[in-house]
Amino acid sequence: MVSEPNGARPTLEAVAALAGVSRATVSRVVNGGAGVRAVVQERVRQAVRELGYVPNSAARTLVTRRTGAVAVVIAEPETRVFSDPFFGRQLRGISRELAAADTQLLLMFVEHHADYDRIGRYLSAGHVDGALMFSLHRDDPLPAMAERAGLPTVYGGRPGWAGADRAPRPLYVDTDNRDGARQAVRHLLDRGRRRIAVITGPLDQTSAVDRLDGYRDALGTPEPDPRLIAGGGFTAHGGERAMAELLDAAPDLDAVFACSDLMASGALRTLRARGRRVPHDVAVVGYDDLEPAAWADPPLTTVRQDVEEMGRLMARLLLRLLDPRKDLRKGAGADGAEGTGGAGMDSGDTDSAAGAGAADAADAADAADAADAAELAPVITRARLVVRESA
Q1: Residues 311, 94 contacting (CB under 8 angstroms)
Q2: Is the dihedral of CA 190, 193, 195, 200 positive or negative?
Q3: What tens digit of pLDDT does each residue of 7-49 get?
Q4: Which residues contact 116 (CB under 8 A, 6 or more apart)?
């Protein structure tokens, strides 16, 4: 390796001298500019590797007007984020895709209402190139902040805030929550269950609304027995409390669809404490298919959504939005379950836990097809029932 005298940091001029090109040519190559022949680009990159040259980020920002960073804003307190494996899986997908594109991730939470002002100031100050936002609620001010700042943004979950339906429509990634809920409840009906309760998430979030609507669809009634509906807030404690409310209000219930695996785990705890056998007395189906679903006692029948893949797709959409010239199909994740832009993928598929691999391979083919689409559009991923012992 060639090094600068006295251990000084390698400079742009040193790279230019080693590569036999001008300083301006090195700058264009390092900063991703066009107009440099491929053979010259490779010579510059070889010199960069030999010298161990690291671009000055401040200077690079002045040249490219890009920071190389993306804000990931989760509209939840950090205690909720770090106690729910859903968020960890989604962040892993986001992080892997951004890392493959040499883009930094800045994580922000909403702990208190005052945090909105802090986040808004940061997003509008040019510290990041774009934002990924998820777990938004109906009255959330974050989308309006991003819009005012002119910040390219991709959302996790179907938009449900005021003004989201006006053009241009927001870019987002979601799963087909309504169809996933239909699959769960139809499975319970097929098993002969007739008093099926539901534990919902917060109904100011579109995922919770869509899953409740899917429950209604499967039952064939717009107004189910209100004694069979309880809110669990997408938390284990909430599921435990909601299950107790349901048993008190409708002791003859014989099944429950919990709209997240965490709420299902809480429901299982209450059923055990009340002496109800699962699935003999009460069948249980969850939603997410995160790791705790397979560890539950009994193992939890649930609706699979590929949470990590959804995070990857969010990051991929944003990177494409920031630089449409890049072919991101060659990036970190060409192997996931991607749906088609702007349309739900209705799926009647039902998997055993052991047979999910083949279905995941079929989803990979869907991903390749969707990745070929040139248009930037919302992406809806597949939801699929995974049958285990609880139902």
Answers
A1: yes
A2: negative
A3: 567 887 888 888 888 888 887 787 766 678 888 888 888 888 8
A4: 110, 141, 142, 145
